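Please check what follows.
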Amino acid sequence: MNQLPTSSDRWQSTLHWQPTDDQQERFQTLYDAILLANQQVNLTRITSPADFWEKHLWDSLQGVAPWLREAGASAPGLRVVDIGTGGGFPGLPVALVFPHWAIALLDATRKKLAALETVCERVGIDNVSFLPQRAEQVAHQPLHREAYDLALLRAVGPVNTCAEYALPLLKLGGQAVLYRGQWTAAEEAGLTAILQRLGGQLSEVRSQVTPLTQGVRHNVVLTKAERTPDQFPRLPGIPAKTPLV
């Protein structure tokens, strides 16, 4: 069986946090379950232990690093939506580490969500729900609109498209974490130009260096400052094809 890296030094030196022995064991179980499901449904091309650890587990959790330091059961339980979860990242590692959070995995590909449901059963992750729809549809449903404390978006699309997906789903004061690789001044200027229309503001941009390959990651953090106008998000497909400018 392929074993994930277990060095706590890498976690501690980069995120100032490290998993418990139980969490480390469940990361291994998650890895094994994803590989098994991957034989039937294409969840990820990242399957070697070191790559999976850095590009899926570590990368998922670095986006919520500010919450990791207060990840105990006494911390408030958040309602979280992982928009475009794909193979279950970042939502599943976050759900594993924060069992008192309610995580909704949103993806339009029903086969992937069905596979992830089986993964959750195998790993014993029971704080996850599944939304097999497009973000543009979910955001206009009363049960979900302005209902979430935190939105996570990783490898979803252009940053302005991500903002249009996320902000309608957030409560006032809620935050969206947009996982990015490189980040430019031009991207930041373009994002800032459209945020007020969506009721959002740019709170911060955090940068992090990956522990194994020394790549650069950025977390673009948006805060919901005002109600999002009812016309957003626009009809399915339009935010991706024609991002706001």
Notes: The longest strand covers residues 170-180. The chain is about 40% helix and 20% strand. The longest helix spans residues 21-38.
